[in-house]
Amino acid sequence: MAETLRLALDAMGGDRAPEIVVRGADLALERMPDLRFDLVGDEARIAPLVAKTRRLKTTEPAIIHTTEVVPADEKPSTALRTRKQSSMRLAIDRVASGDANGVVSAGNTGALMAMSKLSLRMCPGIKRPAIASFFPTRRGETCMLDLGANLDCDAETLVQFALMGQVFARIVLGLERPTVGLLNVGSEEQKGHEFIREAATTLRDTDLPFEFVGFVEGDDIAGGTVDVVVCDGFTGNVALKTAEGTSRMIAQFLRESFRTSWLSRLGYLLARSSIDQLRKRLDPRRYNGAMFLGLNGVSVKSHGGTDAIGFANAIGVAADLVRHGFVKEVSAELETLSSGTSVDDLNTEALAT
User: Do 204 and 212 meet the contact criterion of CB atoms below 8 Å apart?
Assistant: First the structure.
């Protein structure tokens, strides 16, 4: 029997919380019945929702009561200073204290990063966490980071992201030697901001256990040109939201096209199974759940506007990372890289211990 895992859920984070959080936990139990949950938030709102569930109520989840919530538009510094009793902070603290194995939140991204960094601490040698997740591509899946944790980055930070991203790809995707590219406005060496070119020079001139292919462009993401795409959080978040919006637009166009005439409706019936496969492959909910790399604990960010299915997938990401000992594996890989690579060669303090 699988080992029972306990995850702390920020029940009040997200556009439709706590409803989608509770329903998402209930759905997650269908695939992972060994999971147990700490639901952190307003007990008066959470308890009636739990009572209506099919599976969750039978596991008797713990409800940690608090009425304080981190607003979606609140600055991370303000949330860190004033929201110590919020549902997000208390959920993270459950992991820090060892009462839970991981935390999942659909709340304020910046606040989640700041609170997770404070409570869970960073892996040695890493000063900034990065949000990493996967994009569907023509070749399968591509890991991309950062997706919004750090809007401004320098060369040193991008080098750190490349190191963490390739470890993430090797462990999660099972790749022996991932290919890594820096997202830029062109593939030529002279293009892009100076800090991107500086990071490329460092990665190109250093012997590391992955293949750095240089610069990649936006269309290379969907093409699956590389296994790991590295960029600053501003660019990554824009790319993520663009991809999600494009997939919804394609789905809408398909629906409208098949309603134009009786022949198109007939065509839909004949092609229904293939269309359903396409819809599932492009569904952003399948890829919901991004990991904060670089932390000494599992902290997963769900999309704020997701539904119960998407939140259940984010729970699945957290559970899988815990089961595979992801944090320990990342720390071990980074320690190996640190002992075998000089800081002078990297031209960065990313691996200093």
Answer: yes
3-state secondary structure of 288: coil
Closest CA to 5 of 327, 315, 303, 289: 315
Residue 338 pLDDT exceeds 80: no
Compute the average pLDDT of residues 220-232. Answer: 93
Distance between first and last Cα of the chain: 39
The winner for highest mean pLDDT among 169-173, 211-215, 324-328 is: 211-215
- Which residues are registered as beta bridge partners of 291? 132, 300
Dist CA 129 CA 221 (whole Å):
22
Whose CA is closest to 84, among 44, 55, 119?
119
User: Which tokens in the block code for residue 126?
Assistant: 């890493």
**Concatenated DSSP letters of 154-192:** -HHHHHHHHHHHHHHHHHHS--SS-EEEEE-S-SSTT-S
SS3 for 44-98 is HHHHHHHHCCCCHHHHCCEEEECCECCCCCCCHHHHHHHCCCEHHHHHHHHHHCC
The answer to whether 102 touches 10, Cβ cutoff 8 Å, is no
Q: Compute the distance between CA of residue 293 and CA of residue 154 in angstroms, rounded to an integer.
A: 17
225: CB partners within 8 A, 6+ apart:
179, 181, 213, 216
Cβ proximity of 339 and 173 under 8 Å: no
Q: Which residues pair with 299 in a beta bridge?
A: 103
